[in-house]
Specification:
- With 233 residues, the protein is an alpha/beta fold.
- The chain has two domains: 64 residues, Hypothetical PUA domain-like, domain 1 (Ribosomal Protein L25, Chain P), CATH 2.40.240.20; 154 residues, 3-Layer(aba) Sandwich (Alpha/beta knot), CATH 3.40.1280.10.
- The strands form two sheets. It has a six-stranded parallel beta sheet. A five-stranded mixed beta sheet has the order 1-3-4-5-2, covered by helices on one side.
- The longest helix has 18 residues.
C-alpha cells in the first residue's frame, strides 16, 4: 500500500502498540487497504506527529506500533473565530473550511439576531462541527486541531474574553499584519450584530479592537467568516 496522503487521528499519541479508533480503523483498513507492515501517518491534533507501523489490520481495531513521536515546530494558533450561530448547515460549512487553516478555535455565539433554534442546546450542531474540524485537521496536514466551543451568549463570551478583537467593516484596514497575541475575528449573523452588541464591543477594554475590510461587496455571514480568516492567516 502506498502511504495515504493524509493523517490518522489518535487522541493520545504514545510509543509502543496503540489502537486506532473505530472510525480511523475502518478508514485505514477498508478505504486505504492498510495491511500489516504498512506505515500510517498519525497526529494527535496537539502539535505532535508520528509514524505507525500496522501490526493488526482489523477494521474494528487497527493496531499500530509507534517508535517515536515528533513535536511540530509550529505554536498553537493565536487566531480564533467567534461566529454568530447560523441556520441550516452553515455552521458546519464554516467549520470545515476554517479548520483547514491555522485557527485555534471556533466559538458559536448566541446573538440577538442569530438564527439557531432557541430551544436547542445545539449539541448535535457542535458535534457535527467537531467532526468537520477533525476531517480538516487530517486533510490539511496541520499540527493543531481547531477546537469547537459553545454555544455561548455573546455578552457572556465578551465578559470572559481576554485578547484582541477584529470586526469586519467596509471602512476597515485591508491588512492587519501578523497575530502576536490571542485574537478573535468576530462574525455576526445575517444582518449583523445588534446596535447594543456593537456598543459592547466598542466599550471592550481588555485588548485592542481592530477593523478589517473584506472587500467592496457585502458578504453572507458564512462567506465573511472564511474570507476574514483567510486574510489573517
Amino acid at each position: 500500500m502506498k502511504s495515504p496522503d493524509t493523517r490518522f487521528y489518535v487522541t493520545e499519541l504514545s510509543t509502543g502498540t496503540i489502537p486506532l479508533s473505530d472510525e480511523e480503523s475502518a478508514h485505514a483498513v477498508r478505504v486505504c487497504r492498510a495491511r500489516p507492515g504498512d506505515v500510517l501517518n498519525l497526529t494527535d491534533g496537539k502539535g505532535h506527529f508520528a509514524k505507525g507501523t500496522v501490526e493488526k489490520a482489523d477494521p474494528r481495531e487497527c493496531l499500530v506500533h509507534v517508535s517515536s513521536i515528533e513535536a511540530s515546530d509550529s505554536e498553537k494558533p493565536k487566531l480564533h473565530l467567534g461566529l454568530a450561530c447560523l441556520k441550516d448547515d452553515a455552521n458546519e460549512e464554516v467549520a470545515l473550511h476554517v479548520s483547514e487553516m491555522e485557527v485555534g478555535s471556533i466559538t458559536l455565539l448566541r446573538t440577538e439576531h442569530s438564527e439557531e433554534p432557541k430551544d436547542s442546546n445545539l449539541q448535535k450542531v457542535i458535534r457535527r462541527c467537531e467532526l468537520k474540524a477533525l476531517v480538516s485537521l487530517k486533510q490539511s496536514l496541520k499540527a493543531w486541531l481547531t477546537e469547537i466551543h459553545g454555544p455561548i451568549p455573546f455578552e457572556e463570551w465578551l465578559k470572559s474574553y481576554n485578547g484582541d478583537i477584529i470586526l469586519c467593516d467596509m471602512d476597515g484596514a485591508d491588512s492587519l499584519g501578523e497575530i502576536s497575541k490571542e485574537t478573535t475575528l468576530l462574525v455576526g449573523p445575517e444582518g449583523g450584530f445588534s446596535k447594543k452588541e456593537i456598543e459592547l464591543v466598542k466599550a471592550y477594554s481588555r485588548g485592542e479592537v481592530k477593523l478589517l475590510k473584506l472587500g467592496r461587496t457585502r458578504l453572507r455571514a458564512r462567506t465573511a467568516a472564511i474570507v476574514g480568516i483567510g486574510k489573517m492567516v
